[in-house]
Here is the input.
Amino acid sequence: MSSVYAALFFLATIVLVLGLARKIAQYAKAPAPLKIPTTPAPVTQTGVVLRMFREVVFFESLFKSTKWTWVFSWLFHFGMFLVLLRHLRYFIDPVWLPIQLIQPFGKYAAFAMVVGLAGLLIRRIFVDRVRYISAPSDYLWLLLLIAIGVSGAMMTFVIHTDVVAVKQFFTGFWTFSIGDLPMDPVLLIHLTLVAVLMILLPVSKLLHIPGIFFSPSRNQVDNPREKRHLVEWARKLEDS
Amino acid sequence: MAKAEFKAPELSEYIEVPDLVEGTMEHITCFVAKPEHQEALGFPGEKTENWKEVAIDKMGDLLSRYRSFRVYLDACVKCGSCTDKCHYFLGTQDPKNMPVGRQDLLRKVYRRYFTFAGKYFPKLVGAVDLSEEIVDDWYSYFHQCSQCRRCSVFCPYGIDTAEISMAAREILDAIGIGQKYCNEIIGKVHTIGNNLGLPGPAILDTLEGLEEDVWEETDVAVKYPLDVKGADILLVTPSADFFAEPHVDGLIGYGKVFHEAGVSWTLSTTASEAGNFGMFIGSYENMRRVSLRIRQAALELGVKRIIFGECGHAWRIAYSFLNTLAGPFDFLDPDYPVPQHICEFTLNEIEQGTLELDKSGNDEMSITFHDSCNVARASRMGDKPGGQFEIPRKVIKAVVNNYHDMEWDTIHERTFCCGGGGGILTDDLMEVRVKGAKPRMSALKNVMEEKGVTHLAAICAICKSQFTKVFPYYGMDMFMIVSVHQLVSNAIVMNRKTPPEDAPGYGEDDDE
Here is the structure.
């Protein structure tokens, strides 16, 4: 059974890395022929980096828009971010000091994550505008993430699993000397769902993760009068 | 055409988010372009036989040429942030007028033909086959978007429905179903030089008339020159400025400012249009062709600077795209930005102290300012972000005593579109225009009741035309809309007197 999971995670990692790389290459290769930053926009590259930072870390535009969605999605994303950082301890040895320090926060961040997701799910069901735009996959993503969060939190707070064995399994994974995975149902569910998420990410709306960095309305410098912007296919029009 | 049967919505005190009512605007269709209008722009004259294939191919082509299109179709998580931001949704309750609802009309087809999930699990991700009904929906709802970008301000990924609308219209043009209003007008610019199809002699006649009017009013011979070689400044202004109130009052104002500033300037028949409807239909090639007329005029006349008159989408293209489409402008004076906005020019003169202004000239009015959508969210003035909000307000405040802003969440980057931008300003879309104006009308009505505002100033030809038409539907006076340079014109003191022989008609035989 351990080798089945090893194979699953091997596959999931390959799909995630290659799938994302393919998408990122596609975004990078598609030219942006016109300057379309949503203004007021930064007039320097440094300004653009700061704008992107505010967008990615604080969800600035969402904050301007609707406070409830902002609260729930920020709880979810930053809960998950802390949880992911905490999970590094299962992959590295020795565990870096910062990862040791966030351990207590990382444990409880699971609650923030699940509460945020639940809020988003309730909003999706009860706000008529959001319900109208939701496809089945939109609900399933929330349910999948909630299930991952709940199963993970259960192992931290209710039914512990043998984390030392889990760590041996994943650290061994990189050297192809996999250990035995504990056969706890909660752990197996948790890992299966995570693998599903990794495999589906590159073909789903989770592409907003790389997408935001390529969004021309957010990543362009507002300097069209000072600097001529011209992409290759547009240059060809001039030559013809 | 039968008069459209619809009622203007009731105005509310605050922006209320309405409940959804499906299909309220499904019946909207604007006139389809005739074969000759289509073919003049390089599009098929009629719906092509293999339209499905052509549409999907065109979508693929756009995906490879526009990063915005590709990223925006993928990145949406359906968070709902944009759902209550579009003025057309707020005025019509139709869910397909929510920005994401509108995008999804295209996204569901993109997913079906271009994504793994949509190819193999279409029901799961809401992907559908391209069909006759979908093309009808595209034609209807992508002509209910003014490309105002309000949704893009609030989207956590900056998804801009304008980009999707432009792509959709480009696909529709590619299968032979273009919009009459936009495509006919673009054809006029290609052949005659402006949206209204005014030939050179008609413009000359108008300008001579203006010279006489200003002479009678001020006893100063202000010139409105056309095609003058060797002038320093080429003024490119929307052709509505030659044609109708209140636009033409703005043009009078530009001339007075140039006169008092003591600069030499000219208009051009070749470039007698600031607007560029090529953007509305998403056609880079047509947008470029229209822009090149301005470069050509600047070269032929040998000017040193280019200044744009009051026009919203035009200023977006001028500020953000002109250098790309028709640059480089290395033959112009490098000491000035290319192009400059007339408000930038006027404010600079005000700050230099070259203009004497008497605010009492506008005392019978109390003014508020409408931030035109494409100036606000797709361009800039001055050298600091947000100059597009500050500079026109500074100009207005220098020439009026009574000024009040509308509510903070309806101005600046959150401004509401007038309801007529982006190729919607046509009588066959009057219902869309009236209902889409609701949020702006609400904010205006509030500031009228609370602060006693009497007039709305704008710097966009589309906004001015739209408000003139739409005000009466809301029980307001159509002359409430004024040009910013009309206010300048009312306040400016004409100190540079001219010799008698400069007066219009001087030396002509008057004894008839």
In short: The first strand of chain B starts at residue 233 and ends at 236. Residues 200-218 of chain B form the longest helix (19 residues).
